[in-house]
Write a structure and sequence with these properties.
The structure is a single chain. The protein has six helices and seven strands. By secondary structure, it is of the alpha/beta class. The chain has one domain: NAD(P)-binding Rossmann-like Domain (Rossmann fold, 3-Layer(aba) Sandwich), CATH 3.40.50.720. Helix 1 links the parallel strand 1 and strand 2. Helix 1 (about 15-25) packs across helix 6 (about 215-225), helix 3 (about 65-80) packs parallel to helix 4 (about 105-130) and helix 4 packs parallel to helix 5. The N and C termini lie far apart (about 40 Å). The mean pLDDT is about 95.
């Protein structure tokens, strides 16, 4: 088991990519804090992990709010005494244009999708520094960070911010032996904020099918193990070759 006795916080872990990362990390021996705004979803994944012989707790937190994040970190440390891994996965999408999005929708999308990863990393990294053993942080970005879209102006902006947040964090946290990287999925599982996989989602990659959440989970696992100890501040696209094609 490659994550034996390590403690991992995974945000947005109640479904889709976050849920499969939680399942995979637990199977590798990690103790999992399943963080989700939906109490039922989070508890379901935590129960599933425990039923399979792993250790997990469900924590409800609004990651866009600093006090919620502080409480999250406190809960995990009280439960297991340390934090070794953070997966910043939680996000929401606006699916609006510059003309149709409201200021409230803009602020909410950036609050969860960009400010949230910043806040969770800020307080988790402080705990990692205090522990003195380093740590690993993986931010879930998106191929939407690299291009404009006809809709989702706030989401694309936020995910672009996640990319440079990753680089800045990597530079600032490297002296503490905290490695920070990101991954950029495309058309993986259900759309952001959705439970069901739409049969009408366009697939424009080189593989000819949509990706599945476990394909992101396995790359995230690589980034939190010693197999990737020389990988810092990078973004790995998990997109079936979508991003290398000309429009």
């Amino acid at each position: 088991m490659r994550l034996q006795q390590q403690v991992a916080i995974i945000t947005g872990a109640g479904r889709n990519i976050g849920a499969d990362i939680a399942r995979l990390f637990a199977s590798e021996g990690a103790k999992i804090a399943v963080v989700d705004m939906d109490k039922g979803r989070g508890e379901a994944i935590a129960f599933e992990i425990r039923a399979s012989g792993g250790e997990a707790i469900a924590v409800v937190a609004d990651i866009s709010q600093g006090e919620d994040v502080k409480a999250l970190v406190k809960t995990v440390v009280e439960q297991w005494g340390r934090i070794d891994i953070l997966i910043n996965n939680a996000a929401i999408a606006d699916n609006k244009t510059i003309f149709t999005i409201t200021e409230e929708e803009w602020n909410k999308t950036l609050g969860v999708t960009l400010t949230g990863p910043f806040l969770v990393a800020k307080y988790v990294a402080a705990q990692m520094v205090q522990q003195g053993h380093g740590g690993k942080i993986v931010n879930i970005a998106s191929t939407s960070a690299y291009q404009g879209r006809e809709t989702a102006i706030a989401y694309t902006t936020a995910k672009a911010g996640v990319l440079n947040l990753t680089r800045a964090m990597a530079v600032q946290l490297a002296p503490y032996n905290i490695r920070v990287n990101s991954v950029s999925p495309n058309r993986i599982g259900s759309a952001v904020g959705k439970d069901e996989i739409s049969p009408n989602r366009k697939i424009g990659n080189l593989v000819g099918r949509a990706g599945v959440p476990m394909e992101v989970a396995t790359v995230a696992l690589f980034l939190v193990t010693d197999d990737s100890q020389f990988v810092i501040g990078q973004d790995i696209k998990i997109d079936g070759g979508f991003s290398i094609k000309m429009a």
